[in-house]
Specification:
Elements lengths: L3 E5 L3 H13 L4 E5 L3 E5 L6 E5 L14 E5 L3 H13 L3 E10 L3 E7 L5 E7 L2
Parallel strand pairs: 1-4, 5-8
Antiparallel strand pairs: 2-3, 3-4, 6-7, 7-8
């Protein structure tokens, strides 16, 4: 079971504004922080999406092949999440649509720091 995933940022205030607005669409909010990492979720027990600066205090960078997938209840929510991400300054990485007919519907974006996000659902 996934506990949390951390996304690095070089601009914590911009990242917090982006993820507060975006994840709020999925019923998540900023639950707590340690002044470096900010934990978003819908339950204090997790799982969480965490944003913050790297522990080593070096610049955050994007991992090639790393992506965070956020489960949505239906195609309409995926479409709305993709549109919201773009509205908040994300870059389009793949418009909403079926990737595997009847099995996987998804959309892709990169947050303002370049971290790749997927909004998806499984099943027809």
């Amino acid at each position: 079971m996934l506990g949390y995933v951390t996304l690095g940022t070089n601009n914590i205030e911009k990242a917090r504004a982006f993820y507060s607005a975006l994840l709020g669409e999925l019923g998540m909010s900023e639950l707590f922080d340690n002044e470096r990492l900010y934990f978003y979720g819908s339950d204090p027990a997790g799982p969480f999406v965490v944003v913050g600066g790297p522990y080593d205090a070096q610049a955050a960078s994007v991992g090639n092949g790393v992506m965070v997938a956020l489960k949505c209840e239906d195609d309409a929510k995926i479409n709305a999440m993709h549109a919201k991400a773009l509205e908040l300054g994300a870059a389009d990485e793949g418009a909403p649509g079926e990737r595997v007919p009847g099995v996987f519907y998804g959309a892709y974006a990169r947050d303002p720091d370049g971290n790749k996000l997927c909004f998806y659902k499984m099943g027809g």
